[in-house]
Amino acid sequence: MPIIYYLGDLLSEKIGISASASRGLIKLSIKEEFGPFKPISDIGIREYQDTFNNSLKKRLQDLKISNSEEIVNLLLKELITHQSLITMEKI
Questions:
Q1: Confidence band for 7, pLDDT divided at 50, 70 and 90
Q2: How many other CB atoms are found less than 10 A from the CB of residue 3?
Q3: How far apart are CA 87 and CA 17, in angstroms?
């Protein structure tokens, strides 16, 4: 399972939107952070961390998600726990 699907499902549960919309928020945040020409498959753990701490957190705050800080911290924790998914995506 690609990491973006796993994290998108988790984000979906936390903010009450569809999994595809949650994945879209993550993908848009990545594009905002690193530009439109960097493939998502080239994103590593450090880039995901930067994206969550910056662009995604801002998007959640803009959507008036009250516990955006907690959600970002949960996503970061899950990212570290399941970082092997990122490695498997690149094989």
A1: very high
A2: 22
A3: 28
